[in-house]
Amino acid sequence: MTLSAIIGHVFAGGIGALPREGQPSGIYKRLIVTPVVIGPEGLEGDQQADRRVHGGTEKAVHHYPVEHYAVLAAQFPETAAALHPGAMGENFSTSGLTERNVHIGDVFAAGSALLQVSQPRTPCWKINHRFDEDAMARFFLHARITGWYYRVLAPGLVRPGDRISLVERHTDRFSIDSFWRLQHAETPSVAEMEALAAVPGLAPDWVRRLGERAAWLKR
What we know:
molybdenum ion binding, seven-stranded mixed barrel, M1 Pyruvate Kinase, Domain 3, alpha+beta, 6 helices, 13 strands
């Protein structure tokens, strides 16, 4: 059966201020209920505050599984009321697609757009400040519930209720979950790192970082 899901929610938004220091962030998204254009840098009207680490063609669309909110609410009960679809700054919220069955380089049709999984999301301190939970970003990584990013292969329109379906897979070896397991291994396999770096579609920054780490481990 083809791997697919219904896009339950679509989000985009401008820049808001984080509660602690008033630092600008694009994590605050609004619900989109009408068709929205997905272009090379993501959804029309979506913005990122720090373009050095967010946004761009390799992080054009952020997908976060709705299932993870229950996990987060159990881990951070005092924040549970604020943990709902859209709270992590994602653009797509679905049920059924997770880090375990979505792989690096996977190509998905979403509405009339064509997207490719380019890399996992790396959670940063802004998540901690957004929810006033200093351990949240670390928990994301430990539990490997980070979500992932797409690059846009073909622009198009998407709306809530559209189906997102896998149309091409380049590797059965490296899911998002497998990516993080390898990345955080105490003594990672150099051969595995080189194989991951060679997967078509992996973001160039990660290709470079994996190559540099593999070279260092070979010394």
